[in-house]
């Protein structure tokens, strides 16, 4: 009987111990579940961050494709029976670059005393001095073109077409017809401006186009520059950045400094000229 009591007491002790251990194990299990959830949340956050970084990496080439193309310029070029590759020619890689040249004067189409060109990330300029073309039917002490972003101008010094004086700051695409015997009517365009397919602005100080037999033509470009459009930042109050709060942000909108474009072109008037025929 006493043995039975002892056995019953031992069994009760075992059951009590098991209940106590179960009570301890339950909170431990409960503690592990939030920890597991925290680990899973951290893993999900890492994966999300990796996905965002991968997406940014994928977008970088597209962003590079949208980068501004630096400026370029050349002093003289011709296409047709008389072909002259652009010279001197410069194209900036983002840093300033310039060239000067004393070109040969025996091509029979144009004589130029000197050519100077320059370009950088946002600007380009070209200047030709001592210009005489088409047997002196076109003359100028200087023809210069300049562009800044998407703005451009041409300046002329004592320019004449068959004796007719040309405004020193011609409006964009000021075109003067000129009759070249025996071929017919050609044209001289000052401050020729055109938008290229890639969005850049091209400005040519003087562009000559002459008719030739069989529908062909001879072209001549003097002082030509190309610039890319740059974004405008307006003057504003910045309330987000504490370093600039309450301060004016500089306006860097495109502009051509110290130069003016005449708003309206003069009415074109035909000019008769004779060009000796060779060959």
Automatic annotation (TrEMBL):
The keyword RNA-binding does not apply. It comes from the Bacteria. Residues 30-68, 227-262 have a biased composition (Basic and acidic residues). Residues 1-22 form the signal peptide. Keywords: Signal. Residues 26-71, 214-279 are annotated as: Disordered. The keyword Metal-binding does not apply. Residues 270-279 have a biased composition (Low complexity). Transmembrane segments: none annotated. This is Uncharacterized protein.
